[in-house]
Amino acid sequence: MNSVLSGYDTLDVLGTALGVYVAIAALGTLVGMPWQYADGAGVMVVQAGGSVLAFVLAVAFLALLHRT
């Protein structure tokens, strides 16, 4: 019986899906501009920085996953 994922490690597929999801969620957060509802500049910096950091971590995770 052939499956769609035959020849692939299941954890590679799940890791790729998770990395792509986190990257899309981070970009969606940046596009949604949640800092427009914040009261101070410090909160805006933390929210934007957190979104960028989440995207960077997702891309690094995907790069690490596909190098091994």
From TrEMBL:
UniProt KW keywords:
Membrane, Transmembrane, Transmembrane helix
Task: List the Pfam families hit by this protein, alphabetically.
Answer: DUF8123
Matching entries from InterPro entries are given as: DUF8123 (IPR058436)
- Keyword Transmembrane assigned: yes
**Ranges annotated as spanning the membrane:** 12-35, 41-65
The domain of life is: Archaea
DUF8123 domain: residues covered? 4-67
This chain belongs to which protein, by name?
Answer: DUF8123 domain-containing protein
Species whose genome carries this gene? Halarchaeum grantii
